[in-house]
Amino acid sequence: MKRLMTILTCLALLPASNLEAKTWIVKQAGGGDYTTISAAISAATNGDVISIFAGTYTEGLTVNKQLSLIGVSPLTVTVFNNQNAIKISSSNVLIKNLSIRSGSNYGIEISAGYSGASIINNIINNCSNSYGVYTNSSTEGIIANNVFYNNKNGLYTGGTFSVYNNIFHGQGGDGTTSCSEDNHAIYRSGTPTIFNNIFYNNDVALNKNTGSAYYNSFYGQNNTNYCDCSAGIGDSASDPKVTDLSNEDFTLATGSPAIDAGHPSTDYNDVDGSRNDMGVYGGTYSWEIGPTITTITLDKVSVKQGETITVTATAKSN
Ligand SMILES: [Ca+2]
Ligand SMILES: [Ca+2]
Fold first, then answer.
1. Which residue of 22, 132, 164, 281 is most buried, as measured by CB atoms within 10 A?
2. How much distance in Å is there from the Cα of 117 to the middle of ligand 1?
3. Which ligand lies nearest the alpha carbon of 282?
4. Rounded CA gap, 55 and 99, in Å?
5. Ligand 2 centre and the CA of 110: distance in Å?
């Protein structure tokens, strides 16, 4: 009874919003709470999670509440819009496990003045007329373990973002490669901190000299690694040997110089406890592209103290 009392006491101390947080299921084919992400955002309140199943969702999203938008996999869930695909106009928004494209504007725009944005484990691609991610001034958050590819420009940092363990490849690619044109993986404004990223085959990798950048990998740019800036401590200019970029296998091949070459602080260690690997499989937010669990069964629904319960899961490969 004492233990039960303790648990009840802890629950009573939690803020009400935690107790009321809800997960909304979005399934385009039906069977969830909604078939569009926009409808789920309208219904949700601060602190809720929107869980998005496979599909191509052609809708522009305005996230004006403290929400987590989480896809089942960036390889199977796409958000596309001809204008901004996702506009964040709230603090403390999480965008995770989505493939994001815009026809003529930003993949993700973070409106001025909002903090606590987390952009994690996404593929941001083919924003062919603008930036994959654009953060306005007075914004703050993390942009970690994403793949930016084939955008006109990858990322504009207008605020105070930590940008780490991303892969930027194929930005620019329109035949022009000058520092003064739209070509870059990252254009720096504000004061970003940029580390553990891989820059591969962009027209220009890093443009402008604000904030700080170190322990990044630069290889195969069409023009240059650095415009108006220079190499940071720990930067690598060797082929990072990503296994197969064009077929979305972002693991590092055996012998890759990006292995154990990220920031040496234990704060950024990989999930296996070793020093950070550059790229999307390094650090706390390592990609989890493995089998997807499809069913979970329990052999009983209640157990006595000391009794065993068996949980059986089945899964399919991605
Ligand atoms: Ca270009
Ligand atoms: Ca490692």
1. 132
2. 29
3. 2
4. 10
5. 31
- Residue 6 pLDDT: 43
Q: What is the mean pLDDT of the chain?
A: 92
Beta-bridge partners for 119: 95, 143
Q: Name, in order, each residue with C-beta under 8 angstroms of 9's C-beta and a sequence gap of 6 or more.
A: none
Q: Is 109 helix (H, G, I), strand (E, B) or coil?
A: strand
- Give the integer Cα–Cα distance in Å for 58 and 36: 9
Residues 279, 166: Cα–Cα separation, whole Å: 5
DSSP string of 220-287, one letter each residue = --SSEEEES--PPTT-B-S---EEEGGGTEEEEPTT-TTTT-S--SGGG--TTSSSPPSSTTSSTT--
pLDDT digits (tens, 9 = 90+) for 96-137: 999 999 989 999 999 999 999 999 999 999 998 999 999 999
Instruction: For residue range 236-288, list pLDDT tens digits in order.
Output: 999 999 999 989 899 999 999 999 999 999 999 999 999 999 999 999 999 98
Pairing of strands 68-71, 49-52: parallel
Report the candidate in 236, 259, 250 with the shortest Cα–Cα distance to residue 288.
250
- Among all bound ligands, the one having the nearest atom to the CA of 260 is 2
How would you classify the pairing of strands 55-58 and 61-63? unpaired
**252-264 b/e (C-beta count within 10 Å ≥ 16 → b):** beeebbbbebbbe
Q: Measured between alpha carbons, how far is 155 from 134 in angstroms, rounded to an integer?
A: 6
Q: What is the Å distance from ligand 2's center to 311 Cα? A: 32
Q: Could you tell me the domains of the chain?
A: 16-289 (2.160.20.10)
- In the chain, the percentage of residues whose pLDDT exceeds 90 is 80
Q: Among the residues of the chain, which ranges form H helices?
A: 2-13, 16-20, 37-43
Region 55-73: what's the mean pLDDT? 97
Nearest residue to 46 (alpha-carbon basis) of 26, 23, 24, 65? 65
Ligand positioned closest to the Cα atom of 277: 2
pLDDT at 146 over 90: yes
